[in-house]
Amino acid sequence: MKNLFLDTGILDKRANTEFKLSSEILMENAARGMLEFLLPRVNPNSKILLVCGSGDNGADCLALARMLYKITNISIYLPFGTKSALSKLQLERLNAVGENLCFLQQLEGEFDIIIDGLFGSGLKGALNAESLNLLKQLNQKKGIKIACDIPSGILKDGKIPNIAFQADFTLTMGALKSALYLDSTKDFVGEVHLLSLGVAESVFAPESPIKLLECSDFKPPFREKQNTNKGNFGHLCVCAGEKQGAGILCALSGLRSGCGLVSVLNANHLPFSLMQATEIPKNTTAIALGMGLGATKIPLLKDYDIPLLLDADIFYHKEFLELLTQHNTILTPHPKEFTQILKTLNLAEISTQDLQLDRIAYALQFSTHYPKSVLVLKGANTIIAYQENVYINPFGNNVLAKGGSGDVLAGMISGLLAQGLGLLDSALQGVLLHSFCAESYLKTSNNFSLSPLDLIEQIRYIKQF
């Protein structure tokens, strides 16, 4: 896992005071990191446009322009001049080093690479008309687009008041910013690369309550012992409801995810691999409840001291609060369902749109009040919150935007839960498995044709990274 930070400015100041690295040294290291990224991608005939703002983000790019001089063809565009002390200094250095530099008076020409150094994380609010028009022009141009630190137009909290630079790559400095991994920014940041500012990441970026999941965090439930039976791998009971298909998808997913036995309540005509049940089996090790439930009566669970996965319709039932407070639970809502949860718990009464603008804050708010429950807030970059820590999954993709995909996720998580994994580990591993199954599907198929059964089928092909 990587540490993510809401505000890396604090880390920069710490580097100034504790590590005696001035802002000027940090800037030189940032420019050097960008140069090292670019060198394998350019040749003497490449055409590079550096769009430099008037502040320190622009100064980073002016320093980069100095380093690129005589290596390849550079054009510099300073639409707002230079204002910060470092931007003025870097322009002086560039002019001292270079002869016959190409400073554009207006945005024109075609380029192989366009580097955005307009605002970075220093943007304070909505763009004015001139800046808005400039970003529109840059987004319309062909070429590889690279953002310096963060695509211009994105605020440091991840909000996008107008539009943002459409980057293919974002080269971020020193530490990873949480704003780069939100649903709202997923279509703008491209591939994110972390550049060193002269101090190892583990030193520059200490512990944070916000974590970024990595491929190496995935640990599939591979079986090691040979002398085993189905009882060694847990028994999941799925409580189906009015829409039985949702419960069956969950059950099939749980079975494929390694669970030894899966029973289904309130369902008929089950696939042969699933067990039909009229009551919760005595050897049940986890229960999944809520998928397609509708108005179906909930079984009495007060006598069962086993973990629950709660999803979908259960969040609208009057029994939800009792289940949440009396059991160890994993909640897997989509954004609209989470607003209902917040309302029921008297934590907030907000719209889905408001939630999406501040997903991390509301996830942390829930986690603070209900530290024994794990929240899986689904989205383009799904958030897992537990005991005031947040874990962001960056591997989600649009393949998963299909009805039934959430039921499959519920089955993966509850199937792992039934096998004895803890609440948090079941959520983390289930979310990663879900994403990697989608990636596996894309190896042979297009991104619009997936069905929930396709997703379940991919489980068999997933291996550890």
Describe this structure in words.
This protein has helices at residues 9-17, 23-38, 56-68, 85-97, 129-140, 186-189, 201-204, 244-256, 320-326, 335-344, 352-357, 359-369, 405-418, 423-442, 452-458; strands spanning 2-5, 47-52, 73-77, 102-104, 113-117, 144-148, 169-173, 176-177, 191-195, 210-212, 235-239, 261-265, 275-277, 286-289, 308-310, 329-331, 374-377, 383-386, 389-392. By secondary structure, the chain is an alpha/beta fold. The protein folds into two domains: 2-207, Rossmann fold (3-Layer(aba) Sandwich), CATH 3.40.50.10260; 216-461, UDP-N-acetylmuramoyl-L-alanine:D-glutamate ligase, CATH 3.40.1190.20. The radius of gyration is 25 Å and the shape is elongated.
Q: For the record, give the distance between the C-alpha atoms at the N and C termini, rounded to a whole number.
A: 14 Å
Envelope shape: elongated
- Work out the oligomeric state of the chains in this entry: single chain
Q: Strand order within the widest sheet?
A: 8-1-10-19-18-17-16-15-14-11-12-13
Number of strands: 19
CATH class of the largest domain: Alpha Beta
Full CATH superfamily name of the largest domain = Ribokinase
Number of domains: 2
Largest sheet: 12 strands, mixed
Rg over alpha carbons: 25 Å
**What is the CATH topology descriptor of the largest domain?**
UDP-N-acetylmuramoyl-L-alanine:D-glutamate ligase
Integer average pLDDT: 95
Number of helix segments?
Answer: 15
Provide the structure class: alpha/beta
CATH architecture of the largest domain: 3-Layer(aba) Sandwich
- β-strand amount: 15-25%
Q: Flag low-confidence runs.
A: none
**What is the helical fraction, as a range of percent?**
25-40%
